[in-house]
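New here. Invent one.

***
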Amino acid sequence: MIEKIKSAIIKGRINITDHADEELAYDEILDENLFHSVLYGEVIEDYADDKPFPSCLVYGRDQKGKHIHSVWAYSDEYNIAIAITGYIPDMNRWIDYKTRRIKC
């Protein structure tokens, strides 16, 4: 799925949800930085059972090295990538930005 998402980003076939737009603005992440983080990032979690589309959590960095997490889905029907959310990961919740800390 990540290759389809990357291809859609390159082609400009993207839908950014209202939720994603709000979260990105809160963390001062520009769209271009979000896209860069995905194009050069990696999937760290898959959510195959998500509805209405399977989704995945992508970890990447922007052009200046800022760590970014984003959740993406892909619609085969519309050939479009959907940004569900995006944020700066909280290091109290993540080890090396890729592994969730286990709550005790």
In short: The helical segments are 2-11, 18-26, 31-39. The chain has one domain: 2-89.
